[in-house]
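Dock D-glutamic acid; give full complex structure.
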Amino acid sequence: MIDLQAPIAVFDSGMGGISVLRELVRCMPQENFLFFGDSLHAPYGVRPLDEVRALTMQAAEHFLKCGVKAIVIACNTATSAAITDLRQRFPELPVIGLEPALKPAVLACPNGRVLVMATPLTLREHKFAALLEHYQSQAEILSLPAPRLVEFVEQDGLHSPALTAYLSALLAPFRENPVDGVVLGCTHFPFAQEQIAQALGYPVKFFDGGAGAARETRRLLLRAGTLIERAEPGQVVFTNSEPTPERLALCQRLFHL
Ligand code: DGL
């Protein structure tokens, strides 16, 4: 018998998943959430596939011991590496993943240029290859690995001159040759949306998978009969594999941005 009050687990390699958590809370404020960020091992996006799969599986086993009622893998990289294995391992539990929001981007920019920013692992895995195959006739899709951007979020460096310099160099080709839309295909990146817009220097549409994942989570809970109907707000608990006071304070700050 599933306890309705049991939390929804939200997992990321670090702090990025907080951008998805915000959408989950917006969509289901009455639910309880248990966030776990594996900042000790971040970034995942430059690690070998097997390692990311093992770390993600370990986090899911931990959540199961905590008695959660669903698991949201709020990380495109961990989803690419482990979602199939997770669903096989926990068939009784709703397991929701993240993928680059290519569909809404292509719909909003028909025959336009769409830039997908993500981690190297996400961009080379099957999940993204399948998405690309599906949508490449509808727009020009360009992919751009941006692994260091993850570290700027992890290290509280969103307002540093180093980030401005990094983005300016990374996005220079797209300043000269503009794009119509940018897919933020890593859950860390929505926190740097303003900085990315500034580095591009022209108006552009942004897309990320957070709100879609939140709607899908709600739909699966409703179907499982485990969605809380009452109106009072639930609780959000932050945990991290590097639980320093600074990191936990950064979790709160990012959550309230
Ligand atoms: N937040 C993760 C994602 O959505 C990746 C960050 C990392 O490389 O650890 O892809």
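Observed: The chain has a mean pLDDT of 96.
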